[in-house]
Write a structure and sequence with these properties.
240 residues; alpha+beta; Structural Genomics Hypothetical 15.5 Kd Protein In mrcA-pckA Intergenic Region, Chain A; Alpha-Beta Plaits; 9-stranded mixed β-sheet; 4-stranded antiparallel β-sheet; 7 helices; elongated
Length: 240
């Protein structure tokens, strides 16, 4: 379910703020009943009218992007930096990213206008796996890996145990490459986890989101998800 003003905005009726004004003015009906409550939730099956004219609900779309460095994972940016939505400028629907990747982090990012699915994918209840490849300073040891697997403390909170393994160590340049699989999505989490074991990240890429990867896709390239992939995403967040 989504808020009425959000559905109106996605349908191209008006901005969320203007949609709220229209609701308060009594111009909007849901299933034939005038709604003036701004927090009113609507289902996909609900009939919505604005000034007695049914709205055309936006088609749900799903995209996979190989996010490049130097791009913000938001729909808009007050500093006028390039956003991930700017990279999908030819998409007509109002899409937004599912979660975020840092400005300097690359890799797998989902974008959609399906708010219900996006919220579930980001909810810790469903434990969707996210796989990262981190290039870090120094030699990562097996003891470091064990710490990650037990959970490390950052921001006064202990992380949920992760899966981790050492990919390689470059003795000449003194850096390690580590694969890390986490279920959480706290702000700057992977960077903070590696810093907690004294191995600051130099380069970070998300290689997988659940079963999805951007292998074979150039940086900045996106594609629409196939129907079986959308179905599998829904299966990841099914309630038992």
């Amino acid at each position: 379910m989504d808020r009425l003003q959000k559905v109106m905005a996605h349908a191209g009726i008006a901005s969320r703020r203007k949609s709220e004004s229209m609701i308060e003015a009594g111009r909007v009906k849901v299933n034939g009943k005038v709604i003036t409550e701004l927090g009113f939730q609507v289902k996909k099956s609900d009939s919505i009218e604005v000034d007695s004219v049914p709205i055309q609900k936006e088609k749900l779309v799903y995209f996979l992007l190989n996010k490049p460095r130097g791009v913000v994972s938001t729909a808009s940016d007050p500093k006028n930096r390039e956003t991930v939505v700017d990279l999908l400028h030819e998409v007509e629907e109002r899409i937004y990213p599912v979660g975020r990747l840092d400005y300097d982090t690359t890799g797998v990012l989902l974008l959609t206008n399906d708010g219900e699915l996006a919220n579930k994918l980001m909810h810790p209840k469903y434990s969707v796996e996210k796989t990262y490849l981190a290039k870090v300073k120094g030699r990562v040891t097996r003891e470091d890996i064990r710490q990650l697997e037990k959970g490390v403390v950052f921001d006064k909170v202990k992380s949920v145990p992760a899966k981790a393994r050492i990919i390689n160590y470059d003795r000449k340049k003194d850096y390690s490459t580590v694969e890390l699989i986490i279920h959480e999505g706290k702000n700057h989490q992977v960077k903070k986890m590696m810093k907690a074991i004294n191995h600051p990240i130099e380069k970070l890429t998300r290689t997988q989101y659940g079963f999805l990867s951007v292998e074979g896709m150039q940086s900045g390239v996106f594609r629409e998800l196939k129907q079986f992939e959308i179905n599998k995403l829904y299966q990841l967040v099914e309630d038992e």
